[in-house]
């Protein structure tokens, strides 16, 4: 289903947006060749209540679309909170695998992710909940050896002036003074994303790109589609998604059987070249011969059939005859070059008897496209036809 043309000059990105289905977006005539690489990603927004806090969301602004289908896989680092940490000068942050060493040579492993070493001439700053009782006892029972000091420490003569400036700042409501020991950490959060969300670079305009929404999302739940620029931390809505109805698989009638127990449940047109026949039954043992095949045809069945083509049944060679089936689900793939809207009927046909054992009329339904590759060349213009 066409959504509209998209263009963003700064990112040198343009194309024609199509909704493939509820979770797939295609960009026809895709072009993206920006000066700064890796800055842009495709997104829809604003984020729904279920999206906020997920790894693929950009706050409450929207969610990112990936180049690969990762349904059911949680990508943990595509929306990154980068935090700039400031801590006490007398505390050194260590990795989770390190141990705490104290002066009596006792080695205690801490279960917490962050642990601290004590630097010389500083206080112990262990949080009371992060260490066990053994460690606390070792700290309390540490032997302290005293001796005559080599020098005396006098008070800073500027301390009074410093306190006066602090009081003056507080009185003016500025409150800009932050004591080193009044705040352990300060942080700044920015949004980045995983490489699977980066828009691919192309220098021509004759490709089709496929993008995926996360699992359990629906494109009709969002109001716009656009870009996210992580280099300047900016969301760029470009096209409205109001009243959009993406294509979906269509259920039609079951097969009409004429003989040999041909039956099925309701046939489903999954996309433009795949048909599902659930609960298919066919008694090949009692057929006139074993040369019975699944055909799709063009024309009015059965009076004016213009052409018939054998299909792939469960990815088998189209020249493989149908075997015995008893309520089995089978997938029908059309021959290369044919789409479901090009054909008019599907038939179980015996070549020797020249007779159809069952058929169904195929309507021209709006179903999802059937591009298989992530980057498929166009079928018109300069691109090579495949």
From TrEMBL:
SMART domains membership: DM13
Record keywords, A-Z: Repeat
Key word Repeat present: yes
PROSITE patterns reported for this sequence: DM13
Domain of life: Eukaryota
InterPro entries from the UniProt entry: DM13_domain (IPR019545), Spindle_Org/Thrombomodulin (IPR052126)
Occurrences of domain DM13 (ranges): 253-363
PANTHER family from the UniProt entry: SKELETOR-RELATED (PTHR24036), THROMBOMODULIN (PTHR24036:SF5)
Protein name (Swiss-Prot/TrEMBL): DM13 domain-containing protein
């Amino acid at each position: 289903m066409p959504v509209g043309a998209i263009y963003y000059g700064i990112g040198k990105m343009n194309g024609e947006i199509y909704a493939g289905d509820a979770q797939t977006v295609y960009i026809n005539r895709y072009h993206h060749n920006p000066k700064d690489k890796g800055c842009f990603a495709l997104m829809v927004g604003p984020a729904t209540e279920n999206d906020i806090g997920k790894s693929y969301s950009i706050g409450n602004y929207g969610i990112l679309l990936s180049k690969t289908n990762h349904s059911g896989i949680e990508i943990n680092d595509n929306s990154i909170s980068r935090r700039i940490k400031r801590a006490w000068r007398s505390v050194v942050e260590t990795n989770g695998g390190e141990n705490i060493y104290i002066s009596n040579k006792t080695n205690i492993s801490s279960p917490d992710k962050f642990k601290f070493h004590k630097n010389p001439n500083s206080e112990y700053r262990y949080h009371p909940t992060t260490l066990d009782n053994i460690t606390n006892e070792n700290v309390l029972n540490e032997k302290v050896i005293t001796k005559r000091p080599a020098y005396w420490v006098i008070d800073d003569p500027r301390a009074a002036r410093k306190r006066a400036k602090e009081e003056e700042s507080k009185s003016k409501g500025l409150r800009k003074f932050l004591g080193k020991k009044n705040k352990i950490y300060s942080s700044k959060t920015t949004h980045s994303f995983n490489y699977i969300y980066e828009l691919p670079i192309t220098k021509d305009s004759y490709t089709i790109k496929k993008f995926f929404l996360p699992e359990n999302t629906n494109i009709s739940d969002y109001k716009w589609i656009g870009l996210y620029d992580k280099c300047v931390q900016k969301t760029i809505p470009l096209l409205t998604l109001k009243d959009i109805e993406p294509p979906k698989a269509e259920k039609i009638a079951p097969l009409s059987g004429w003989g040999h127990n041909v039956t099925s449940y309701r046939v489903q047109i999954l996309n433009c070249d795949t048909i599902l026949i659930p609960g298919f039954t066919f008694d090949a043992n009692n057929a006139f011969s074993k040369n019975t095949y699944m055909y799709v045809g063009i024309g009015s069945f059965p009076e004016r059939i213009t052409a018939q083509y054998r299909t792939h049944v469960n990815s088998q060679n189209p020249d493989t005859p149908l075997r015995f089936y008893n309520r089995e689900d089978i997938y029908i793939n059309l021959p290369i070059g044919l789409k479901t809207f090009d054909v008019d009927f599907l038939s179980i046909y015996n070549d020797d008897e020249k007779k159809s054992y069952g058929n169904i009329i195929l309507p021209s339904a709006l179903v999802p496209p059937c591009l298989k590759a992530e980057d498929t060349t166009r079928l018109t213009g300069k691109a090579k036809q495949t």
